[in-house]
Amino acid sequence: MDATSSPIANKEAKDNCGKNPLIWAAYYSRLEVVKYLVSIGVDIEATTNRGHNALMYACERNHLDVAKYLISSGANKEAKNNSGFTPLIVAASEDQLEIIKYLISIGAHKDSKDNEGKTALDHAKEETQKYLKSV
């Protein structure tokens, strides 16, 4: 039995860090599991103790296919974690240029600020800064 055909005892279960099954699936880029969990109604905006959601982990770890699916399924591309990071700021802080390009292409606000007043550009490294300055 694979992960997409096995029943989930508690689809909203969370570990000690607050990660639910959807967040773990996004973290490890398990797109089919992400699709299954979304299809059975797992909360797409559920967050960890730090306020990270599944989309933020997909962006942090450069899982573009997962990020696209989550957004197409209704994930908020402007959601903020406890530090005020949006998915774009998360991607910029990890220099995930392909994710950044995608988020910008679908209208993510590049001027959103975290709790310290920093934007994605402030968090980005040199290569990513060049791109963000050009758009």
Q: Nutshell version of this structure?
A:
It holds the Pfam family Ank_2. With 135 residues, this protein is an all-alpha fold.
Report on this model:
The chain has 135 residues and is mainly alpha-helical. It has one domain: Serine Threonine Protein Phosphatase 5, Tetratricopeptide repeat, CATH 1.25.40. The chain is 45% helix and 0% strand. The chain contains 8 helices and no strands. α3 runs parallel beside α5. It is globular. The termini are far apart.
Question: How many discrete structural domains?
Answer: 1
Helical region count?
8
Shape designation: globular
What is the distance, rounded to the nearest whole angstrom, between the alpha carbons of the first and last residues?
A: 46 Å
Region (Disordered): 113-135
InterPro entries: Ankyrin_rpt, Ankyrin_rpt-contain_sf
Keywords: ANK repeat, Repeat
ANK repeats: 17-49, 50-82, 83-115
How would you describe this structure in keywords?
mainly alpha; Serine Threonine Protein Phosphatase 5, Tetratricopeptide repeat; 8 helices; 45% helix; ANK repeat; Ankyrin_rpt; repeat
Which SSEs are present, and which pair or pack?
Elements: H1 21-27, H2 31-39, H3 54-60, H4 64-72, H5 87-93, H6 97-105, H7 120-123, H8 126-134
Helix pairs in contact: 1-2, 1-3, 2-4, 3-4, 3-5, 5-6
